[in-house]
Amino acid sequence: MAADDGIKAGRLPPEQYAKNFADLHAPLSRHEAAVEADRCYFCYDAPCITACPTGIDIPMFIRQIAAGNPKGSAKTILDANIMGGMCARVCPTETLCEQACVREAAEGKPVKIGQLQRFATDALMAVGTQPFKCAATTGKRVAIVGAGPAGLACAHRLAMHGHDVTMFDARPKSAGLNEYGIAAYKAVDNFAQREVDFILGIGGIKIETGKALGRDLTLDALTKDYDAVFLGMGLPGVNGLGVPGEDLKGVEDAIRFIAELRQTKDLAKLSVGRRIVVIGGGMTAIDVAVQSKLLGAEDVTILYRRGIEHMKASVYEQDLAQTKGVRIKHGLQPKAIIGEAGHVTAIECEYTSEKLGKLAGTGETLRIEADMVFKAIGQTFDGDPLGGLVALGSGRIKVDAERRTSAVKIWAGGDCIAGGKDLTVSAVEDGKQAAESINRFLTTAV
Amino acid sequence: MADLRSTFVGIKSPNPFWLASAPPTDKEYNVVRAFKAGWGGVVWKTLGEDPNIVNVNGPRYGYVHGPDRRLIGLNNIELITDRPLQVNLDEITAVKKAWPDRAMVVSLMVPCEEKNWAGILKRVETTGCDGVELNFGCPHGMSERGMGSAVGQVPEYIEMVARWCKAHTRMPVIVKLTPNITDVRHPARAAKKGGADAVSLINTVSSIVSVDLDTFSPNPSIDGKGSHGGYCGPAVKPIALNMVAEIARDAETRGFPISGIGGITTWRDAAEFMTLGAGNVQVCTAAMTYGFKVVQEMISGLENWMDEKSHATLGDFVGRAVPNVTDWQYLNLNFVTKAKINQDLCIKCGRCHIVCEDTSHQAITSIVNGKRQFEVIDAECVGCNLCVSVCPVEDCIDMVEMATGVDPRTQRPISPGKSNWTAHPNNPGRKVAAE
Fold first, then answer.
1. pLDDT band, residue B232 (cuts 50/70/90)
2. Where are the beta strands (DSSP E) in A194-342?
3. Does CATH number 2.80.10.50 belong to domain A38-127?
């Protein structure tokens, strides 16, 4: 066993951490933004708008940048997506707006919509003015469970309509996965909290943190105390691997590790293994793999059980991981986690083959040494705190197109709903649609 | 290999690219650098009488930028040379002696008295230069003193001064015209009547390039105030091309030598001016934007094009487009075109659709069989070319001639013959064809 093996903090020279976890993309300068904005064709019925889950008028906001009107541009963005700032940083634009950009078809180089969106929203947030106002108060009160993207988007839109909003969140800080679940280099300088402050700047929204549904609150009581309830509590559980050795020390939930990393002030004090294996194929797998590498892990390998074309992480994210020195091995599934003295030392995996859509082990195995194994194979919903008040579907909350649950007065959105896309931008859209539906309900109900 | 040698009103130069009278030709240092870079000739920055004029000590130039700060238009409030006359004359003499094969024309501007013109011409002749250019063009500053465009705007003055100059010098006299008039043919005719050897055009266009919205001062701002300047660069090229063509096809000035000026940036611009009748061209803004080296691209580009098209000499293509410039009334109304969108090249931006829908003839679809698709509706298409103008993809939309059959828009058979407005039934003043 080499001296460097095991899980250790301070693998890097102290000054290296800040460099490794700096902004993934430097923000565009004013001139860069002007040049990039000029590449936009201002398409008719632009495909990028359709591709955006929140339907931002992208050609218009880009034209406003080109015309030297970044604040107007930001207003256009925030009209459709109040978290336009975070989405500019974390959206997989390469599979959304930028994939639909006609310049992608024309030359394989779409307009950098995400970076332009950041330019505009940063410009507005630097000034700090809230471009939206609360309507005259309606006296109606709405409770929101979960102060993540869905809840915050819902709250802001409700406040615009003059409703009084109280948000509850189980964690000590609001912003949900923006605060706890996104790679640090995508939201530097405390952006998640700055964005929350910006959203709350509209007024009329109260947040109570440290209050969890099922522990400190009941849905039944909320529906009695408030005129409407929005559920946006996300996915608290993590899927298990279901292989021997899962309980060994060093086998961790990726989500938990990312949350810890995000809340660690001095990253030199955060321990990480020398050889790391990540199981999974989504964004979380990439985020934990890349950040482990940036913390100084020597070998980081992502194991994905199916062919690479099935990975949920976009090609861009895969490229990013590989550029940072992460190895992606696909067609391999975990068979057993092997340990010594209670601690993981290796993982045994089996090659897979896929026939007619059915994945099966080939019998051939591979052993990869590891002192840390991250599980990033998806999160699970916990329906217990709902007390059976709303119907579930596919293990999550069932909603209609307006994000109404089966219960009158209760709406839901974000990762906790069935059919959720596990994207910040989709959660924002859920919150926005739900707020509009709640508003209709509150203003027309007899 | 194409022969680029140029002879313009008897003045020889190794190529048709001259630097126009402007800041780049203000002194020996610059002109020598220009000749080293390959320019065929220069028109020396306009000389005036002593005491030398003074320039502002604040910004002289204003600009119009494209998004990448590409200079599309430049304006200036610089006056004629601000150095003593003798200094300039000595330098002109030295340069001409050192570069005998390059054209050396001297631009002049003095008050409108015969003795003033006679006096300066006598002194300029001593330099050994090849010709003079009368600056009747600058619209700013000097015009307030009765010179520059103040002369160029009065054909009688042009004729008078041209006549004086021809009487007082053996050298070729080129009259530089201002575009700040309503009909450029009148000043050109006056120059010819006065006996001038050629005209050169255009000088700069009167302009305010921008206003500072914080200080409410026009730009360039001199202590909070601005004065109109002369506009030049790529933005003015279409205006210049038309003026050159107007003179080239005017019955009174047809064949009168023209030196083409106005936004020439590449060999192609130069070739276009020359096909419209310019015997050579003068360049300023391109050099002021990129330096003198640009002439090398112009030489190489023109050479390659001439070789490709088998034009052995400049004379082979000068003026070739002139017969094709005509009045609107003579355009063939039987010529029918329809836009055709190449679906393989189309990137589906929809710009053709929205401009046609909003501002033209509702002749381009946005949806076909439920899919985003842009197709021309021949029954609505008037062949206007707006879709081609806005399409971001080269060659994606073509204007295709409909030579036979029935125009689905008008339901009229397409006639193989030509017909124009002069004989159109809707023309109250139509001419009936002779029996």
1. very high
2. 205-209, 228-231, 237-238, 251-253, 275-279, 299-304, 327-330, 332-340
3. no
Secondary structure of residue B125 in the 3-state scheme:
helix
Q: What is the pLDDT of residues A123-177, one digit of tens each?
A: 999 998 899 999 999 999 999 999 999 999 999 999 999 999 999 999 999 999 9
Look at B349 and A35 and tell me if their CB atoms are within 8 Å.
Answer: no
A 10 A CB-CB count for A4 gives: 13
Q: List, as one string, the DSSP characters of B18-38.
A: EE-SSGGGSSHHHHHHHHHHT
Active site residue B138: yes
B349 → closest Cβ in A31, A66, A102: A102
Residue A250, sorted as left (phi over 0), alpha (psi -120 to 50) or beta, turns out to be left
Q: What is the pLDDT of residue B434?
A: 53
As a CATH number, domain A141-236+381-444 is: 3.50.50.60
What pLDDT, in 10s, does the model give residues B13-26? Answer: 999 999 999 999 99
Topology (CATH level 3) of domain A14-20+238-379:
FAD/NAD(P)-binding domain (3.50.50)
Give the domain ranges of chain A.
14-20+238-379, 38-127, 141-236+381-444
Task: Give A2's pLDDT tier (boundaries 50, 70, 90).
Answer: low
What ipTM describes this predicted complex? 0.88
Whether the upstream peptide bond of residue A236 has omega within 30° of 0, thus cis, is no
Q: Residue B305 is encoded by which pair of tokens?
A: 């094009």
Q: Tokens in use for B71? A: 């200079």
Beta pairing class for B278-283 and B337-341: unpaired
Query: pTM for the full model?
Result: 0.92
Best CA proximity match to B20, nearest among B274, B238, B188, B204:
B204
Residues in contact with B388: Cβ distance below 8 Å, sequence separation at least 6, in sequence order: B339, B397, B398, B399
CB pair distance less than 8 Å for B347 and A45: no
For residue B373, the chain A residues in CB contact (below 8 A) are: none
